[in-house]
Amino acid sequence: MSASRFSDTVSATLTDDVLVVTIDNPPVNALSADVRAGLMAALDHAEKDSAVVAVILTGTGNTFIGGADIKEFGKPPIEPLLPLVIARVEKFAKPVVAAINGAALGGGLEVALACHERIASPSAKIGLPEVKLGIVPGAGGTQRLPRLIGTVAAIELIANGRIVLANEADKLGIIDSLIENSLIDSAIVSARSAADVPLRRTGTLPVPPGSQEAVDKAAAEALRKARGQRAPAEAVRLVRLAATASLAEGLAEERRTFVTLRDSDEAAALRHVFFAERAAGKVDGLEKVSPRKIETVGIVGTGLMGSGIAVAALNAGYSVIGIEQTREAADKGRERIAGILDKAVQSGRLDTAGRDDRLSRLTVAADAAELAQADLVIEAVFDDLTVKTELFQRLDGILRTDAILATNTSYLDPDAITTATAHPKRVVGLHFFSPANIMRLLEVVNCKRTAPDVLASALAFAKRLGKLPIVCGVTEGFIGNRIFSAYRREAEFMVEDGALPHEIDAALEVYGFPMGLFAVYDMAGLEIAWARRKRQAATRDPAARYVVIADRLCEAGRFGQKVGRGWYSYPDGKRTVDAEVTALIKAARAEKDITPKSFTADEIVTRLLKAMADEGDALLAEGIAARASDIDLVMINGYGFPPHKGGPMFAAGRR
Ligand code: T1G
């Protein structure tokens, strides 16, 4: 067996008469310029060496090829470009077999699609997730995948950027066989036998015929989910084109579209989000700190938040002990948790065995002494300082001294709660977003006394839950609610200045928010903010601008959608502009002699983005947020900020 090296990241071994080419470009075998050059050199060698009858492509570690090198985007292209490498593979005179040892994504799958056979290990993850980066596949994915799996399946996968596991890829026909063990040995056998028959070149296959109605339905569903984003719509157009255009025409149109989208603001924003997510949760100096072992999680309070947190922890494999004040409340809490799991079974997201396994790891009791065995206890009780401090005092006498204590408070000062425990270093904030078993965002509050290994444990817990942890310091509302308060305050200033709620909401929805601010306000209820404003009234700066409109709505009993009236009215549940509110707004303006002016949608969005970004700058200056991209992630994942705009800090920077 002889070994050759073709570039820094591409080497090969000749096993009998098959050249096994291995890509080793950590961390994800991205198709960098060196990988592309190495693959071309390996193909040159295989072409010339008569001792080579076939070629195998594979990767090191748990990744086949993670895609094009996103870090190269926005820089001058370096030859050989990926489409050239891929065309060479497909046209190669000798068999080229993809031995998919792990993730084959984006350009990685496009390389595999051009191979003459694809065999995969069960750990393989397969997909064309380019639309999540605001682009479309740019090296043949929209033209070759439909030739293997048909137009409908290709639209669904590519327009949604959905990644499938190996067994689904096998069923769909993306891969030719699933190999449990000795993937390379099997690939060698396949490659050698392929040398004796005509090669199956994907690009020469016809797109299997499908019903036009099914195609139209798949396309409509993809466009509905895209909510106005360009890339999914372009992906649908290109996949449909594959059925009628020649491969060359389809590839040319795909490349043109890819280059246009790659250079768009939308793609720049989504690349920003991609790298931001990977930077989030990294705390300088914490890399060397070992997290404490967490296997049993206690949750005090199994109401709306507590039950959601319990399900998230059960889903992640933890044992969970829910605690309530009475047996009756404990039974209700268990019913609530079981109800969430039953809904998951009904929707097909969970099977009954999975549900039963989760319930077997759940205890819900009325006796807090059960928490003595917990490694982490999360309080999710009523958001009142007295209630929480009394609880912390009580828990001090129950928990192991090395158990971590987390508060889920949204608005209280975790440092004030921590004064109640004799072990302040074990306290950390875990601010979940409701519903806690669904929402990815989790603000991890690094309190004044939180020990480094407690913070590291909280981050490890968040990651095992599949959450997106964002570390923040202690301030009222942490990152998300503080930015949201600034955003809401600015919007109310604009209402007082002349804009109407529905005009502001319309501008936000055109910009990309699923719902406008005032509609969200009505859905959440006005009374929570009203109570906070009344609490703060005594200490409010009299010189600061204050808008009474929201108070007036509450004084009139207009608490939002659940009472049928808020910023809007809701006849038959339909959100409707209410003349009564407009009159109340005009009266409030008149009291301040304000001459109302009109705002364009662009002025509305610009002013609100600035308000959010200014508050974000303050959070950075105060050291509450570690990086601007964390603030973007919080607003995207917790407050509906459109990801294809990159978040308030990114968007404000680009305006
Ligand atoms: N390019 C450059 N860097 C990448 C990368 C990529 N494609 N994928 C990941 N990284 C970096 C990431 O920033 C992080 O860096 C480290 O690798 C580990 O990532 C022509 C044009 C492969 C499933 O969209 O889904 O192909 O923080 O934490 O959890 O049509 O990475 O360590 O400095 O995510 O093990 C299409 C994107 C590209 C796949 C591995 N491909 N990557 O997950 O590691 S466009 C994708 C992933 C394309 C073609 C088009 C995941 C992963 P750092 P990680 P992981």
- Are any ligands bound, and if so which? (2S,3S)-3-hydroxy-2-methylbutanoyl-COA
**What is the CATH homologous superfamily assignment of the largest domain?**
2-enoyl-CoA Hydratase, Chain A, domain 1
**Estimated helix fraction:** 40-55%
Helix run count: 26
| CATH architectural arrangement of the largest domain | Alpha-Beta Complex
Mean pLDDT: 95
Q: What's the CATH class of the largest domain, please? A: Alpha Beta
CATH level-3 fold name of the largest domain: 2-enoyl-CoA Hydratase, Chain A, domain 1
The low-confidence runs, each spanning 5 or more residues with pLDDT under 50, are none
Write the layout of secondary structure elements.
Elements: E1 2-5, E2 10-15, E3 18-23, H1 33-48, E4 54-59, E5 63-65, H2 82-91, E6 96-100, E7 103-105, H3 107-114, E8 117-120, E9 125-127, H4 141-149, H5 151-160, E10 163-165, H6 166-172, E11 177-178, H7 183-194, H8 212-226, H9 230-242, H10 247-262, H11 265-279, E12 296-300, H12 304-315, E13 319-323, H13 327-346, H14 352-360, E14 362-365, E15 376-379, H15 385-396, E16 404-407, H16 414-418, E17 427-432, E18 441-445, H17 452-464, E19 468-472, H18 480-497, H19 501-511, H20 517-524, H21 527-536, H22 549-555, H23 579-591, H24 601-621, H25 628-639, H26 648-654
Helix pairs in contact: 1-2, 2-3, 4-5, 4-9, 5-8, 5-9, 8-9, 9-10, 11-25, 12-13, 13-14, 18-24, 19-24, 24-26
The structure holds (2S,3S)-3-hydroxy-2-methylbutanoyl-COA (T1G).
(2S,3S)-3-hydroxy-2-methylbutanoyl-COA is lined by residues 27-28, 30, 63, 66-71, 82, 103, 105-107, 110, 129-130, 133, 137-139, 141, 275, 278.
